[in-house]
Specification:
This protein has 320 residues and is of the alpha/beta class. It has two domains: 199 residues, Rossmann fold, CATH 3.40.50; 98 residues, UDP-galactose 4-epimerase, domain 1 (Alpha-Beta Complex), CATH 3.90.25.10. The chain is built from ten helices and 13 strands. The strands form four sheets. It has a seven-stranded parallel sheet with strand order 3-2-1-4-5-6-11, sandwiched between helices. Strands 7-10 form a two-stranded parallel ribbon. Strand 1, helix 1 and strand 2 form a beta-alpha-beta unit. The chain is globular and about 60 Å long. It starts with a strand and ends with a helix. 45% of the residues are buried. The chain binds NADP nicotinamide-adenine-dinucleotide phosphate and ligand F7E. Ligand F7E binds next to helix 6.
């Protein structure tokens, strides 16, 4: 039975990846950090099939002992301070976890077993201002402390491959969303806001930049691409997205329309949600993933919006 270690297993993508690998017959070891409250909401339904171990990307020795104790064949590094807006308020912490956390894990792998296959969760945010569509050869122009940290994570992953011949790959994923998305990210903030307004629990929805355009796909499908990257004969980096961009305004329009409302009656702009520097347009050219991995997303933008609004309506109705 192959063994996979997932850091960030309690996060959105980690929970889908764990489900996917369990279905493939893996023993899934999940690294969780100690906190005063339990953060297993996204993995509660599969918790008994997982091996959960305490560790933290800040703590090198915890990484070494997890790798030594469980001897994984594959490591998926999904842990990060992943919220872009927070990265301006906690720039040093973001660098510690999202950048240096990667090299701590790579060093631990190099020391314990350099044959382990390693996946790094890189991000389309690294492209920032680079002209769209973006692919594996597009130069980076990061626009936030988060994106800068991810650029370090990307290049150190490439560097360990080139320096030590290790099987390390960087998956450059564009925004992926789902009903399990953190509530502060814009898609989930909108789906939750729409559901609250529809159910009479809120009157308005406060947002920042409505014109930013993103390539939004369904997280449940993107985890297969991560796994496929580690099954290749040679390690290479891949861009993963849908190839279609929509604005935050489009997302609002579609989500409110889904429940029979007009977003213009409820959405207000609030400067508190504007960023010091934003990214205007990200859209993936994922021709390489299509050709080499045979990976293609199926869930459309409209289906994603509907899935997220439905899930929030159900959650809020069940809670009332
Ligand atoms: P997420 O929901 O924010 O999950 C982040 C995970 O990292 C959580 O499990 C969190 O644990 C863990 N974590 C944070 N700091 C840690 C630390 N110091 N040590 C160990 N674990 C720590 O993120 P996601 O959306 O699933 O994204 C997964 C990865 O892909 C992240 O690296 C993100 O930056 C990257 N990425 C995401 C997207 C996207 O659109 N979602 C696109 C490209 C790349 P707690 O539960 O304890 O907080
Ligand atoms: O913002 C705008 C905001 O926070 C998207 C992370 O998973 O994907 C994610 O980063 C856009 C930005 O995601 C609000 O200014 C407007 O232009 O949902 P977001 P993100 O910054 O794209 C990448 C690929 C990652 O790697 C990251 O880890 O929406 N926006 N009004 C708003 N954003 C938020 N959060 N809240 C608002 O009220």
């Amino acid at each position: 039975m192959p063994i996979a270690l997932i850091t960030g297993i309690t996060g959105q993508a980690g929970s889908y990846l764990a489900e996917f690998l369990l279905a493939k017959g893996y023993q899934v070891v999940g690294m969780v950090r100690r906190s005063s409250t339990v953060t297993y909401e996204r993995i509660e339904h599969i918790k008994h099939d997982l091996t959960l171990v305490q560790g933290d990307l800040h703590d090198q020795s915890s990484l070494v002992s997890i790798l030594s104790n469980y001897q994984p064949d594959e490591v998926y590094n999904l842990a990060a301070q992943s919220f872009v807006a927070t990265s301006w308020n906690q720039a040093v912490l973001t660098g510690e976890v999202t950048a240096l956390g990667v090299v701590r894990l790579l060093e631990a792998i190099r020391m314990v077993n350099p044959k382990i296959r390693f996946y790094q969760a890189s991000s389309s945010e690294m492209f920032g201002r680079a002209p769209a569509p973006q692919n594996e050869t597009t130069p980076f122009h990061p626009r936030s402390p988060y994106a800068v940290a991810k650029v370090y994570g990307h290049w150190i992953t490439v560097n360990y491959r080139e320096s030590y011949g290790m099987f390390t790959v960087s998956g450059i994923l564009f925004n992926h969303e789902s009903p399990r998305r953190g509530i502060e990210f814009v898609t989930r903030k909108i789906s939750d806001g729409v559901a609250r307004i529809k159910l009479g629990l809120a009157k308005e929805l406060l947002l920042g930049n409505l014109e930013a355009r993103r390539d939004w796909g369904f997280a449940g499908e993107y985890v297969e691409a991560m796994w496929k990257m580690l099954q290749q004969e040679t390690p290479e980096d891949f861009v993963i997205g849908t190839g279609v961009a929509h604005s935050v305004r489009d997302f609002c329009e579609a989500a409110f329309r889904y429940v029979g409302l007009n977003y213009l009656d409820y959405v207000r702009q609030d400067p508190r949600f504007m960023r010091p520097a934003d990214v205007d347009l990200l859209v993936a050219d994922c021709a390489k993933a299509r050709q080499k991995l045979g990976w293609m997303p199926k869930v459309t933008f409209e289906e994603l919006v509907a899935m997220m609004v439905e899930a929030d309506l159900k959650r809020l109705k069940d809670a009332s």
